[in-house]
Structures are given as C-alpha cells and as structure tokens.
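sry for the spam today, last one i promise. struct tokens for design, 209 residues
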C-alpha cells in the first residue's frame, strides 16, 4: 500500500498530469513493484493503467501504451468490479484513443460508483459533443459532493453561459473567482462575465487586450 501511495503522489488528482516524464516513469515503476508483490492488487493495476495513458498522451511515447493501459484497467475491473478508479482509468485510456462514446459509457459507470473524477471527465465529453444539459448535470454532481470545487464551478458557469443562462452562469463564475487563489486569473474570469454580458470594452480591458 505504501508503494501505491508513493506512485499516487507522482501521478494525478482529478486529471492533473505528472509534470515530467521522469515522474511518470517513477510512478510506473512503483505500481509495477506493488503488482509484483501482490498481483491481485486492483488499485495498483488501475493506477498503472492511468500512468500508461499519461506516458502515451502527455509525453509522446508510442501509442501501444494506451493498449497496455486498457489491459491493466480491464484487469483491475475483473479483480474488483466496484473499484471506481479502474473504470476512470479505462475511460481515460479510451478518451486518449479518441473513443469518446466508449469513454463516456465507462465514465457513466464510474459515476454510479461515486467517482467525481468520472463526473468531471464525463461532463467535459458531454460539453464537447454538445450535450450541454448532461454536462452541466455532471459538474453539479461534483459540487453536491464538494461545494468548494472551483473547477466544477467554472465549468458550470461556462456551460450555463453557452446555454444562454447568463445570470446563473455569472453566479457560478463569481463563486469560482472567490475560490481562485491566483490573482491574475480573477481579471480573466471577470472578463468572461463581461464578454457574455456583451461588454466588449470591459472584456478587452480586463483581459489586457
């Protein structure tokens, strides 16, 4: 378990990728050691799958790593069908393969297992294919679990703006601004409100254009 936690720290939370190929390689080695010691360790297989996907997607390695990611994720699911991380890892591999519909189906399963990571990814896919109401529902489910999730606030705002619900979108954007610790992002997010309010001059001023 300690080895898996070391690898976890090197990997990702809510889709945040490792910052270097060195960290990715170290995470892979940590998970491989854990699996060598305990072959039926489903969580290690799931996280190894995520690391393989990152190796292909983030660091430009050969595409066959995505096939390895799918194999590891499927193995994790066989070992523990209730493991949401395994479904998320499979969805991540499918997404990076360009198989959006397959990824969405898997993320939906992971969501039913209580994964907010799955809801984030599912919401982004649904937004990207124009299923705005469903995407918004996924982002709002995250906020039901974690009311302080600023990314879910921001994406809820963006979706509502796109749907033409400007007042509701502004409320979520203001909430995201209140939770944002980076001062430089405040003006950019306020500029987005100005844009959707039709204040082009204010938008350009705030965005520094």
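last one done:
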């Amino acid at each position: 378990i300690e080895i898996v936690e070391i690898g976890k720290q090197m990997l990702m939370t809510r889709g945040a990728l490792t910052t270097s190929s060195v960290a990715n390689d170290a995470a892979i080695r940590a998970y491989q050691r854990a699996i060598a010691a305990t072959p039926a360790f489903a969580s290690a297989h799931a996280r190894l799958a995520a690391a393989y996907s990152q190796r292909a997607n983030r660091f430009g390695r050969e595409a066959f790593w995505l096939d390895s990611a799918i194999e590891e994720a499927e193995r994790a699911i066989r070992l523990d069908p209730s493991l949401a991380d395994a479904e998320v890892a499979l969805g991540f591999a499918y997404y990076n393969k360009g198989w959006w519909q397959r990824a969405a189906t898997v993320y939906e399963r992971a969501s039913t297992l209580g994964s907010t990571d799955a809801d984030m990814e599912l919401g982004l896919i649904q937004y990207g294919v124009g299923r705005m109401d469903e995407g918004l529902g996924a982002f709002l489910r995250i906020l039901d679990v974690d009311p302080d999730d600023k990314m879910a606030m921001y994406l809820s705002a963006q979706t509502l703006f796109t749907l033409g619900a400007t007042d509701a979108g502004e409320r979520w954007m203001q909430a995201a601004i209140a939770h944002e610790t980076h001062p430089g992002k405040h003006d950019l997010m306020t500029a987005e409100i100005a844009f959707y309010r039709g204040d082009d001059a204010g938008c350009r001023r705030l965005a520094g254009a």
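The mean pLDDT is 87. ok im logging off now
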